[in-house]
Write a structure and sequence with these properties.
By secondary structure, the chain is an alpha+beta fold. It has eight helices and four strands, in the order βαβαββαααααα. The longest helix has 30 residues, at about 90-115.
């Protein structure tokens, strides 16, 4: 059994989607970021970085805890043998897109949403910088997805699971992916998957 520690954000949804796609049994613990649960000693013992998501895998001889959503995806992929392309060339392409998500898109959009939704001061130059880079990366993905069903080859991989919660969140926000037709078609394809829908509904286990 795996314990998932998460909240209603794209980084949190990513791990729920992966667990659902892998068909692994798990229990969800909601870490309410508004009340600061992520900074309690109990949670810091699981993720010293004080951020969701994190998992603890109890299936082995000793529990294994993993934090950082991309690291959790790789851990679960290794555990199950799922969502890792078969050839070296396809794996390299998967890593490229996974890394752009983890190191470019998600941090950028995190800052953008912070300034759009929470900051008391919203300098236009700051909003522009984060909005432009976010939209540039989404347009890059749009062009890559032209003529493709998924980010790499014909099969869903970690790259798709990494990107989908971010793109679905943007599509439902007051930013838009209108005009990015290949990205939109991919997003519709991905969000039609039951595992994606379930992973993006955060429900605490009783
Ligand atoms: N790179 C990390 C980012 C994690 C992250 O930023 N988590 C946010 C929510 S999306 C968080 O827990 N913020 C609370 C805080 O920083 O106090 C990942 O992908 O797991």
């Amino acid at each position: 059994m795996i314990d998932l520690y998460s909240y209603t954000t794209p980084n949190g949804y990513r791990v729920g989607i992966m667990l659902e796609e892998c068909g692994l049994p798990y229990r969800t613990h909601i870490i309410d970021l508004r009340s600061g649960m992520q900074k309690t000693p109990e949670f810091l013992a699981i993720n010293p970085n004080g951020k969701i998501p994190a998992i603890v895998d109890h299936d082995g001889a000793k529990p294994i805890s993993v934090f950082e959503s991309a690291a959790i995806l790789f851990y679960l992929s290794e555990k199950t043998g799922r969502f890792m392309p078969k050839t070296a060339a396809a794996r390299a392409e998967m890593w490229e897109w996974q890394m752009i998500q983890a190191s470019g898109l998600s941090p950028m959009i995190g800052q953008l949403f912070y300034f759009m939704n929470y900051a008391t001061e919203k300098p236009e130059s700051v909003l522009k910088r984060y909005r432009d880079e976010t939209m540039r990366l989404l347009a890059l993905a749009d062009q890559h997805l032209k003529g493709r069903s998924f980010f790499v080859g014909d099969e869903i991989s970690l790259a798709d699971i990494g990107w989908i919660p971010v793109v679905a969140t943007v599509a439902n926000s007051n930013l838009t992916i209108d005009g990015l037709d290949h990205l939109k078609a991919w997003c519709d394809r991905m969000t039609a998957r039951p595992a994606v829908q379930k992973g993006m509904k955060l429900v605490a286990s009783s």
